[in-house]
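RECORD CONTENTS
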Amino acid sequence: MDEPTPASGRTDELERFTFTDDGPWLVDRDQLSWSVGLPALRQSIRRQVPALTSRRRIPPLGRLGVVTGRLAVALGGWAVRDRRAGGQRSTAGLSRRLRVAAEHLGPTYIKLGQIISSGEGLFPPELVSEFRLCRDQVPAEPFNSVREVVEADLGRPLEAVFASFDRRPIAAASIAQVHAATLRTGEEVVVKVQRPTIRERVQQDLRVMSWIAPFLIGRIPVAALANPPALVELFAETITEELDFRLEAENMLDVAEVFSQLGQRGFVVARPHPELVTRRVLVMERLHGFSFDDLEAMRAAGIDTEAVIRTGMSGFTEGCIVHGIFHGDLHGGNLFVLDDGRIALLDFGITARMTPLERSAFLRLMLCGAMGDVPGQIAAFRDLGALPADTDIDDVIRTLGLDQAPVDPTTLDQEQLVGEIQRIIKELLAMGARLPKILMLYVKNLVFLDGAIATLAPDLDLVGEISALSMQLVTTHGDRFAADLGVAVDDFQVDTNAIKASLGVVDDSDDGLTYRELQARRDMIRRRLESRR
């Protein structure tokens, strides 16, 4: 049999993956030695999570002493000074002290803070704002340490692989840092290098967190539905897979393959190197583009920023409900826009993967939301793990008042607004509500898209876009949805009033709703809440 030519190999690669058109090497997924056994490895890591987060009688005592000491300083200072002030000042003071404690405690706690910093709407705004300050405040490892990790994992001197390797990293995060380099064969690459002792530190810190978390329930006013033990469990599920870069490289290939199958050619994923991927080192193609918030540069380059947002909304949603996989950590540092308007995705350490049952529940959640089917939405939330399995759907609807006509929050005064929020949170907690990993990652991404729309497309008609996207998905994947759900979707109709209600707008008119108009309403509500505080 004739060997495939480079041209035919490139065609096959681009048909299978959403890569750049002319990459530095070919990726033949069937020939990647580093990918052997990864499904079993992924399952093994997941099975370790309960052991890491179970509350032990005796945690690592040395680390426990350091952590409890830092937390005692933070909580003691808050109790003596900020707590007495009450309201927003109390929450802001506690948030600042917790952020300072996290920075002192090192990479694991900074990583936890970074996850919280993306949780706008899930955590108090003061806590989110504070932890955003530590997103890029992780000191870089000395270059000698970087060299040792690279040479140990690749089994060769650094100079045998790279013609150049920048000593100063492009970015230094909690788990790893990223360096620009050039291979000896001439290709520009990015090299992600794991911090040398991070694996041991993470496992130690998870045991300490699991031991401390139950003591914090009800004692600090920043946890909301993501109570401390649940947050530790979610964090453990997220961070343990990040510690093996072979899994991240597989995530890159899986997402690029899914986008290709969906025809989502508005996305680009960097190619991982066919040979230079290990547990602690990941060499990938280097991409260049515009920062996601660089509106002026994109418009000067002739890029349609509203089209960029539509690509983001469509690809993110379609990947979730059709294949059950999506990039789980969208933020400005993890993606940029190429000069042709395509979105380049980076850093696949956190990638959400749904089980078939989770994907079915998520699909029902999306379709029922677009149709205004409240019982269907509650059932989907339950099946995703947000409510206990034996939850009575009708009881939830009655208790939360979802069987009543929706109330426009802008018509409530300060006391009514705060009282309603407190009532709903209290009722949800009494029902045993929690925030499973899939939903938290999805909501985090929605928060990022919300901010991206504010910057790149503030006059986009949100109701119109969501309606059009919903109909397009049902039209394209109706047969598959029907098979997955066991019901016909021929009569699917978008309920624009339900979409508006999900955005906090009670309006029976056929008018659209731009992001700018929605933000004005949010600002009004925020001012009322701040006035109440």
Remarks:
- The chain has a mean pLDDT of 87.
- The two ends are 75 Å apart (CA to CA).
- Residues 356-532 form one domain.
- The CA atoms of residues 78 and 395 lie 39 Å apart.
